[in-house]
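All the exercises in this workshop are built on plain-text protein records. The record below serves as our worked example for the rest of this section.
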Amino acid sequence: MPDKKRTRLSLLAGVLLLCCAPALYAQNLQDRVKAAFVFNFAKFVAWPKTSFVDERSKLQFCLLANQEFSRAVALAIEDASIDGRKLESRTMRRSEDLEGCHVAFIDDERANATEWLIAIKGRSILSVSDAEDFIQNGGIIQFVLVDDKLRFEIHQGRALDSGLVVSSRLLQLAKTVHRD
């Protein structure tokens, strides 16, 4: 009887693995793609010198996201630099964690993006999210799906208001550029 039960459990575990593995792989792939986008966004944005303590200060990626995405960002920026600055990622839990951030990614499933955008307003922080209506609620870059492809929109006016200059090369790649 125990062998029969063990066989059934093994078979059930195998079926669940076959059913769920593609979904897990797809989510992991989507996290890696978004992480690469976030890293590359930072390459095409200029921050005011006042947003860094000194020339050796790291460019900080602050994440309000699930553990898998946070790991994907850490791997994407590992051993990389932008404009001679080393990169660092960290997890946010409270709005106080925004201190020293240069890029803030806010996952649509983790928190109320609007509350975080209020805390970001007036700071030189590139806000990025996959939350619906992120741009309309005050964000700078929003991921959107177009024909099952990951694209993004940019609010150039809001970036400028935050002291950030977005490269024309990045603006050309955006699905939509908002200016007002």
Q: What stands out?
A: The first helix runs from residue 2 to 43. Residues 33-178 form a domain with the Rossmann fold fold (CATH 3.40.50.2300). The chain has one domain: 33-178. The mean pLDDT is 86.
